[in-house]
Specification:
Arc Repressor Mutant, subunit A; Tetracycline Repressor, domain 2; 2 domains
């Protein structure tokens, strides 16, 4: 399920994101209208809690209102609708990413920390992975997170044109890894079958129906026969599919950073100057 942000009224959404206008004052309790105490921030916080606990499919103005002890209609004084609310939610959770991150002086260490922090962020809010990156929200916290990443990337000394592509590459990599981990966590409850049960049934059927599997796919079989090195500090309590996804993330990140390091060395060899 892919959700596109930025579908509400552009000016109203951007005004709420950037708080360019004061939020409406609640009217008194003597007449019709919402009771005092409801704010845009309270609505956004409640909406994030709904999405975190029950997923994007459960998000509705009614569900958010019930969480606040109000009717859905009471929310519309503050937020025009669900489409604008999604933009506000998406930007608000991005405030969890360190925006003022100071570099350690070692860009590789900094980018490793950034990738791990961002992976953890997505796993705290897996519904964020359903929001397409094709159309960004253009909110202050989203921009602050991007600014922090670009600051770290400038520590490599690479030029702006390369950095633009690296920003997208890093986000695609981390989001992809987070999606795999999130899917692994949800698989058993979504399908009603434990991982061990699923793998046992499918693997047994495969070996029975394709006895010449190793002959058909010799290189894949060769790779599977070779022992894999255990991940340092790996947690055996983590179910296998998630543990495998996390180890793939770590190995892939190392290879990606190796590639950046090669580009850095190539740039230095060509006499490129490090200019932010």
């Amino acid at each position: 399920m892919v959700v596109y942000a930025g579908q509400g009224d552009a000016r109203r959404s951007m005004s709420l994101l950037w708080r360019s206008a004061a939020p409406p004052e609640p009217r008194g309790t003597a007449g019709p209208g919402p009771r005092p105490g409801l704010t845009v921030d309270a609505i956004v916080t409640a909406a994030i809690a709904v999405a975190d606990e029950d997923g994007m499919a459960a998000l509705s103005m009614r569900a958010v209102g019930e969480r606040l002890g109000r009717t859905a209609m009471a929310l519309y004084t503050y937020v025009p609708g669900k489409r604008e609310l999604l933009d506000l939610m998406y930007d608000a959770v991005h405030a969890e990413l360190p925006a003022g991150r100071a570099g350690s002086g070692d860009w590789r260490t900094d980018l490793t920390d950034w990738a791990r922090d961002t992976l953890a962020f997505y796993l705290r809010h897996p519904w964020v992975l359903q929001v397409s990156q094709a159309r960004p929200v253009l909110g202050p916290h989203e921009y602050a997170g991007l600014d922090a990443l670009v600051r770290l990337l400038y520590g490599t000394g690479l030029g702006a044109e390369v950095l633009r592509r690296l920003v997208g590459t890093l986000f695609h990599f981390v989001r992809g890894a987070a999606q795999t981990v999130a899917d692994a966590r949800e698989a058993a409850s979504a399908t009603g079958r434990a991982d061990e049960e699923w793998w046992y049934a499918r693997s047994a059927a495969l070996m029975e129906l394709v006895p010449d599997f190793a002959d058909r796919y010799p290189e894949l079989s060769r790779m599977e026969r070779e022992p894999a090195r255990p991940e340092p500090g790996g947690d055996d309590a983590v179910p296998y599919p998630e543990r495998e996804a996390r180890e793939t993330f770590t190995a892939g990140l190392d290879v990606l950073l190796d590639g950046i390091e090669t580009a850095v060395r190539r740039g230095r060899g060509a006499g490129r100057t490090d200019t932010p």
